[in-house]
Amino acid sequence: MNRTHPSDDDSRAARAADTFRQIYGDSPDGVWAAPGRVNLIGEHTDYNDGFALPIALPQTTLLAARTRTDGRLRLHSAQGDGRITELAVAALAPGAVTSWAAYPAGVVWAFAEAGHAVGGADLHFDSTVPTGAGLSSSAALECAVAVAYDELYGLGLTGAELARTAQRAENGFVGVPCGIMDQMASVCCTAGAALHLDARTPERHLQVPFDLEGQGLRLLVIDTRVTHDLGDGAYAALRTGCERAAALLGLPALRDLPAGKLPEALSALPQELVPLVRHVVTENARVEEAVSRLRKGDAAALGPILTDGHASLRDDYRISCPETDLAVAAALHAGALGARMTGGGFGGSVIALVRAGREGMVGESVTAAFGAAGHRPPRTLTVTPAAGARRVEPAPVR
Ligand code: GLA
Which domain does 190 fall in, by range? Predict the structure, then answer.
C-alpha cells in the first residue's frame, strides 16, 4: 500500500528542477505543485450548478517553469516520450494540440483569450497522480500551469479565477465539457479539510475540517484500473440530458429543483430523464447532509451517505461498471463504513471509508474479489486530505 506525504514534494521538486536544467540548459524560475483529487460526495452535480465535497490528494503534478520572452511555449513531461513539444503562444487554437500537451497549452490559451498579458515559457512536468484513474490528473496538469503563470506573469488572480481558467482550457481547448469541481479541488483545497463547493458561486467555497487520523479513520482509494475517458461522448450526453431536463422544467439548472418538488417534477418529465434528475437532486442533498455530519465532528457518519451515493450512480445515473460495483461490495463486506465510485464514472476509482487498522484487510478483500472475478488486480492507496496548488521551492538563483 502506498502512502505519500506532501513533504515528498520537496525532494521531488529538487529533482524536477535538476531535470529542467538538463533539458532546457538553465534553472527554472520556480517549481509549483498541483494535486489530484477524490470527491467524497456530489458527483455529476457541478455542471448542474450544484454541490460537491472533494479533497485534494497527496499525489501531485510538479511543474518546473521559466518564462521566455520570444512567445514560444515548450513542454516536456517525465511521463512522456522524452520529446519536447514546441508551440507558439500566438498560434494556440482549439484543436491545434492533440497530445497530453493540450491541457497545459490550453491554460495558456485560456489566459490569453481572457485578455491577460501572458507569453511563453519552458515547462517540465513530473506527476505522481495516476492517469486514467478518475483522480483528475488532467486538472492537476492544468492547475499547475495556472498557478505558475499567475505568479510568473503577475496576474494576481483568485483561486476560483484560476480554476475557471483551467476549466475553460479543458472545455474550449481540449474539448471536454467538464464542470469546475476538479479544478476547484486542485487549486482551492487545504490540508485536513474537504472543500464544500457550490458550483454556482465557486468563489464562496468553504473548508470543512475532515480529520481522518483524529477520528481513527482511513480513506482508501481503490483504482479499478478500468480506464475512464471523459472525452468519449458519454459524459457530454449526461450533461446534455440534465440541461434538457432543467429547460423542460423551466429552471436555470437542476440545482434549482428543491427535493420537496422532486416527485411532481419527475412526473412531468420524459421517462429517460427521470433517473438523471433523481440522481442530481438526491446527490445535492447528500452533499449538504455530509457537510452537516462533518461539521458535527462525525466523519464516520459519512459512510452510509457514500454508499447511498454509489447506489444512485449505479441505478439512476448508470455510470458504474462491474469492477466499481464489485470494489464497493467487497469493501463493504470487509467492514468498510461506506464506499462509492468517485469521479466521472465508467471505471476509475472507488473510495472506501474504513476504521484505522482495517485498511489492509479491506484492500486485500477487494483484491481477492477481483482475482476471483477474473479482473486485473486493483491498485490501492491510503490518502489524506492534502493541500491545493502551491509553489514548492523558492526560485533558484539563475
Ligand atoms: C469529472 C468532471 C467534473 C465532474 C465529475 C463528476 O471529474 O471533470 O467536472 O463533473 O466528473 O462529478
Answer: 9-209+386-392
